[in-house]
Structures are given as C-alpha cells and as structure tokens.
Amino acid sequence: MSKILVLGCGLMGPTVARDCAESDEVARVVGCDIDPERLKKCSEFVGSPKFEAAKLDITDHEALVERMRGFDVAVNATSSRFSLSVVEAAMEAGTNVVDLSGGRYPHEGELYARVEEAGITVIPGCGVDPGLIDILSGHGMDMMDEVDEVYFACGGLPRDPEPPFDYKIVFGGKAMPIRPGKVPMILDGKLVEVDRYDALEPICVEGLKEMEAFYDGYPSSLLKLCLERGVKTFTGKTIRYAGFVKKLMFLLECGIISREPITFQGREIVPLEFFNTLIYPKVKFEEGDKDITVLKVRVKGRKGDAELCVNYDMVDYYDEEKGITSMAKTTGYTAAIVARMVARGAITEKGIKWPVRIIKGKLFDELLSSLGERGVHVTETVTKSSAL
Predict the structure, then answer these.
(1) How far apart are CA 336 and CA 6, in angstroms?
(2) CA nearest neighbour of 86 among 75, 36, 72
C-alpha cells in the first residue's frame, strides 16, 4: 500500500487528499500547508484516520526534502511558481511527483535528463486544463494514422453567474486570469501567434446561459505533439459566459488592465494589479458558491481509407452531497487517480512524462472509468465516413 504526500491544502489539495485516503490502495496521506487554518479545514474535510496534517513552508528547501522522503508520490497542489522547486526537492528525496500545474515546466532541456538520472517520475500538467484536455486529445490522435485538426475549449464557471463579469475565480489565487497578448496555435500547418481573446464562437449548454469561447493558451505538451504529428490546425480556447470578452476589450482599450506602469498621485502603479485588487471581492469564490466545468475536444483525421472525427464532451457540476467544487473534482480527481497509478508502479518510466504521452491504453480507460465512478462523466462520440 502506498503513501502519498499532498502539498497545498487550498482549493484542490483537500479533494486530492480525500480521494487518496478513501482508496484501498493507499495506507497513508499527509497534507501540507503553511496555513494552520487550511490544515484544520482539510483534516475535517478528509475525515479519515489515514490522513495527517503537517505544517510546511514549501520555500524551505531542506524542510521540503525531509518531508518528501519515504513517500511514493508527492502531489503538488500549490501555485505553479513552486513547481520547479518541488521537482528539485523531489530529486533529492527520491520521490515521484504529480503536479496539477504545468506552466512553469520546460518542454525540453537538461532538467529532463536530471530527473531521469534521479530515477523518479514527474508528471506535470495533470489536472483538467492542462491534463484531461491533453489526455483526451492524445487518445483521439492515437486512433488515427493522420491527424488534420485538434481543437479544445474548456472553462470553469460559476453555476449562477453574477455581474460584473459572470465569473468567479474557481482555481485559486486572487487575480483574474487576464492575459492580453499573443498565443501559439497551428493554422494552415504553420505555428503562428494569434491574439488572445480572438476568434469568438458561441458555446451552448442546455439549461445554462449562453457562453463563448476564445483563443487562449501557451506553449504546451499537446501543441508540441501536434507539431510532431504534422497537425494542420490546432486551436485551444477558454470558455466564459457570453459578453466576457467585450467587457475585457473595453477595459483594455481604456488602459485599465494594462501591465504598463503609470504614475498616480506621485506613485507608480500597474493598472492591472490595481484592477485585480479592486475586483477581487466581486469575483472571489465564496463559501456557498457553486461552479460548473465545460469541456469540449474535437480531433479530425484519417485511419486507413476512412475519415474519423472524435468528439469528447463534459459538463460537470458542483457536488452537492460532498461539497466539492466541479473544478476540484475534474482537476483533483484526475491528479489523485494518476498519482495512485504512479504509486502502485503502473507507470514505470522515469523522467518528466507529460500526461498526453503517458496516460494511454488501459491507463486511459482506468482514468475515465474512475472519473465516472466519481460523477465526472466524459462522453466520447466517434464518427467514421469513407474518404472520397
């Protein structure tokens, strides 16, 4: 039976810890955080004799290494800014890592060789986006000899939207994810930079307010794989309620969400930082709030003489019975399930292994069936037609 360490007991960590503590595969779970109040709430939420709360300053390298020793897997549910320091500590401690975040990881370079030489497995970007999105896209690509298109759209949203943005921060932090600028996509077979918030399209879910999807993203393991496979079109989008982008563009044109410093009453301020401080009380995910997660994946290509289109769809809701947010379910459960795969030796490859390249075959089937058992249902639709 395995021992699992959970770093961070904020919005995601408690769900990871509880899911692992409820598994017959796991003998011990330790949840770490620097905030005693978070640790107390996490202990109450997990409610298992297998669980232990431990105060830890993740910026204390020696303390982190010592805490990680002896665990089969450490699940990093802290901010992405700590990801690489967790990996450094893991190499010293000899502990495998599953990281909900992937944004700070390089996609090649000397770190890959160092992790492999350390004899540990590190699986970054193992949540919903990145994570489940990539795994589903990769599975669709594996069905095909040639892949023409990979498309996804995903968003975490309040179940009951309220002005001014019809949005709540469901993943953590105190800043809205506002990032005007360019993002990489593949169009007409070429890697290009497109404007974030461009290419608006409507997204409709029965019983919910109309939504919209727009370009969003960053250099990812899925994008890298699409380039390797010669995919002609790769587009990644974020979903929000309709009207979100129009509001952001107005603020951007006014300079209110600019990153360029300005002088105000003799002091230099960054407009975006001031805006995030001002708006946070209105977009903070409060106790009693409920959320949804909407996910869409489409992969088109050919298998032999047939044309294939594989679609994955998911609309997930706040768990009323357990009091677990949809974002924690779709993100935390994914990480917890993969962590147990690593802990029991189902994933033996050493080094940095992105989910899109490692969760395949039986592991893919296990992930989706396990998510389904936890109320997270992904629908697969495969359309096959003869090529003309």
Answers:
(1) 10
(2) 75
Backbone φ and ψ for 305, nearest 5 degrees, come out as -95, 0
Whether residue 234 contacts residue 214, with contact meaning beta carbons closer than 8 Å, is answered with no
Residue (of 363, 332, 337) closest to 349 by Cα position: 363
- DSSP, residue by residue, 102-119: -TT--SSSHHHHHHHHHT
Cα–Cα separations (whole angstroms), residue 327 to 50, 197, 234, 376: 24, 22, 24, 11
Lookup: tokens for 78: 């802290």
- Asked whether the beta carbons of 125 and 291 are under 8 A apart, the reply is no
pTM, two decimal places: 0.95
The token pair at 137 is: 């896209």
Domains, the chain: 2-124 (3.40.50.720), 132-317 (3.30.360.10)
**Pairing mode, if any, of strands 73-76 and 2-7?**
parallel
Tokens 């709430």 appear where?
41
Q: Are 48 and 21 in contact (CB under 8 A)?
A: yes
DSSP letter (8 states) at residue 193: E
Contact 39, 33 (CB under 8 A): yes
Beta bridge partners of 149: 233, 300
Q: What is the pLDDT of residues 60-113, one digit of tens each?
A: 999 999 999 999 999 999 989 999 999 999 999 999 999 999 989 999 999 999
> Residue type for 299, please?
V
